[in-house]
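User: Could you go from structure to sequence for me? I need the amino acid at each position, not a summary. Structure tokens:
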């Protein structure tokens, strides 16, 4: 009874903030449940499945190894091992590409897969797709993949933490009205919910970025009005460098934010700017250096295959051609690089508003750049935001890969979405500045105007919740079908597929990406980039699994112009003529796959 009286007393006097927070938490929980029941989808991006399969292998004690094998990574590892090898002993077999055992991954930074591995150690992941258990199945059909769903819920929790940090930051620099409106608009952002449910590392990156914002804000305030010991400045600078380093080990491109961080420290930290910059740089280097050394020892590059992302999407390596190449010529004329920069930058500038993910609220932010603020902290953090925006546009333009073509908005190439919380805060601040210039009569119209503002901004999310979406991302990803296909293969056998990331994650089998060609062709200069180049020289390939990624590809561009020996001709013969090339080693074909998909094996494993 005394406890109840105390609660009533707090609610009636000083406890309004507590109950308001409790109400918001309950509303967020209900929103998350509604979104997951109506609009959740299983993983649909290469990056999410790749990170998840890495996390699974780490959790199983297999180290930082991968079941998703890129031909390009084989080339880099093989080249490094051959340059370091001495003569082989008689009777030994070379495995320079390291695919006969557990190949190391040289394509992904480690933080997010390690975090997922920890999650898999703690929570009860069930990797076998279910057709009988409720929620995971519907009317005896597979519906949701439990590991995908758990990872999505985990990222939604990270999303909640980002909203809390954004709320605290907005309240510190602006006022409670801006802070609470920020919470509503961020939670009503359809883009952020889709990122949180996608399985990508974006929410973890957003958490690192908001932590960096807080560090710089506290550091700037401590420089203007010291309240702590002088070592607090050095601690905050070190934490800032550490956060940029952790972000860089979550997604390599995030590491570029070290530059605006150092510029901010140099401009706004007074006489100790030089030492603070060195502290931040040292903390960043301490985090990044061991991983760079590891990659260099394995592949002769600092970031593995990601080192050559500049080449992707150019006329020399369109689409995913680079990562599927066994022996690419790694030369990039400067004119091609400039062409990629200008073309992609122009595209980003045209689509800047949706690129930032804030819709028309971003217009308030852009107009707000002309507004002067009395608070120096607000002005300086806006300067940092503009530095980040300018830099990330260039980084995203140059680093654009085929991932942006596969999923135009929800992908790992999208860096501008990291700025969305700050963009929303500054856009809301302008809205309230304009609102204060209006004399509302009667006064009740003011909250009505704020409500209309929030409603219009959140309309995409409301439309999303009004429709029900199937969680099965088919074609081409059907976890049950992939697991059935993988079950015919032994764990140490190699498969080739056009969706190797899905075979590695759902099927838990070692899978190499489809080579550029199916068979050799004397008239094709790239005819050596074929199935046999791996199966005969590296490790025998026992299965071939092709999906709508290939069967639904462009007929003229990907099939006819590719010439003899292409996968287009291979599929035409396999589906229409029901025959494969005479010398092709995989000749057994089960029923039920064609014409959408194709599976070939060395013997009738399904019997």
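Assistant: Here is the amino acid at each position, in order:
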């Amino acid at each position: 009874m005394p406890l109840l009286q105390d609660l009533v007393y707090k609610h009636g006097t000083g406890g309004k903030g507590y109950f308001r927070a409790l109400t918001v938490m309950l509303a967020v929980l209900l929103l998350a449940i509604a979104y997951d029941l109506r609009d959740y989808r299983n993983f649909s991006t290469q990056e999410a499945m790749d990170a998840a399969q890495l996390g699974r292998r780490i959790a199983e004690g297999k180290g930082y190894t991968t079941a998703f094998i890129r031909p390009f990574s084989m080339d880099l590892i093989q080249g490094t091992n051959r340059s370091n090898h001495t003569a082989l002993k008689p009777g030994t077999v070379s495995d320079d590409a390291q695919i006969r055992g557990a190949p190391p991954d040289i394509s992904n930074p480690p933080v997010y897969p390690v975090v997922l591995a920890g999650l898999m150690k703690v929570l009860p992941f069930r990797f076998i797709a279910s057709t009988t258990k409720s929620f995971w199945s519907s009317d005896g059909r597979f519906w949701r993949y439990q590991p995908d769903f758990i990872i999505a819920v985990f990222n939604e929790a990270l999303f909640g933490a980002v909203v809390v940090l954004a709320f605290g930051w907005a309240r510190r620099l602006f006022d409670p009205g801006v802070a609470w409106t920020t919470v509503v608009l961020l939670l009503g952002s359809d883009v952020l919910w889709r990122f949180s449910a996608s399985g990508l590392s974006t929410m973890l990156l957003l958490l690192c970025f908001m932590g960096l914002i807080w560090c710089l804000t506290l550091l700037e305030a401590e420089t203007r009005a010291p309240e702590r010991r002088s070592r607090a400045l050095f601690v905050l600078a070190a934490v800032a460098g550490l956060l940029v380093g952790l972000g860089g080990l979550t997604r390599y491109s995030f590491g570029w934010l070290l530059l605006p961080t150092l510029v901010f420290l140099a401009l706004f930290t007074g006489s100790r700017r030089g030492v603070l910059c060195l502290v931040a740089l040292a903390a960043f280097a301490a985090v990044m250096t061991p991983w760079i050394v590891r990659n260099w020892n394995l592949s002769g590059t600092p970031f593995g295959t990601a080192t050559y992302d500049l080449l992707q999407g150019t006329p020399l390596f369109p689409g995913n051609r680079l990562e599927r190449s066994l022996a690419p010529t790694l030369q990039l004329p400067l004119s091609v690089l400039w062409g990629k920069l200008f073309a992609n930058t122009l595209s980003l500038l045209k689509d800047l508003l949706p690129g930032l993910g804030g819709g028309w609220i971003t217009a308030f932010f852009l107009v707000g750049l002309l507004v002067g603020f009395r608070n120096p902290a607000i002005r300086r953090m806006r300067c940092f935001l503009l530095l980040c925006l300018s830099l990330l546009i260039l980084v995203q333009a140059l680093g654009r890969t085929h991932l942006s073509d596969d999923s135009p908005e929800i992908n790992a190439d999208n860096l501008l979405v990291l700025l969305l919380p700050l963009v929303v805060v500054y856009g809301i601040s302008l809205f309230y500045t304009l609102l204060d210039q209006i004399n509302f009569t009667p006064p009740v119209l003011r909250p009505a105007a704020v409500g209309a503002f929030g409603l219009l901004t959140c309309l995409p999310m409301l439309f999303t919740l009004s429709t029900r979406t199937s969680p099965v991302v088919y074609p081409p990803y059907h976890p049950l079908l992939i697991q059935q296909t993988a079950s015919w293969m032994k764990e140490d056998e190699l498969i080739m597929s056009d969706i190797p990331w899905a075979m590695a994650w759902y099927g838990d089998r070692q899978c190499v990406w489809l080579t550029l060609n199916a068979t050799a062709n004397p008239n094709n200069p790239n005819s050596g980039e074929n199935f046999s180049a791996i199966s005969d020289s590296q490790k025998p390939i026992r299965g071939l699994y092709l999906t709508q990624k290939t069967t639904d590809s462009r007929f003229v561009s990907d099939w006819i112009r590719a010439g003899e020996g292409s996968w287009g001709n291979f599929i035409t013969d396999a589906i229409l003529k029901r025959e494969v090339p005479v010398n092709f080693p995989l000749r057994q074909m089960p029923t039920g796959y064609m014409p959408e998909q194709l599976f070939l094996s060395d013997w009738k494993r399904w019997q």
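One structural detail worth keeping in mind: The CA atoms of residues 126 and 386 lie 44 Å apart.
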